[in-house]
Amino acid sequence: MLPKSSTHDIFQNLLAKYVISKDNDNRFYLGSYLMYWAGKYEQQQGVIQLSD
Question: What pLDDT is stored for residue 6 in this prediction?
Answer without folding.
Answer: 94
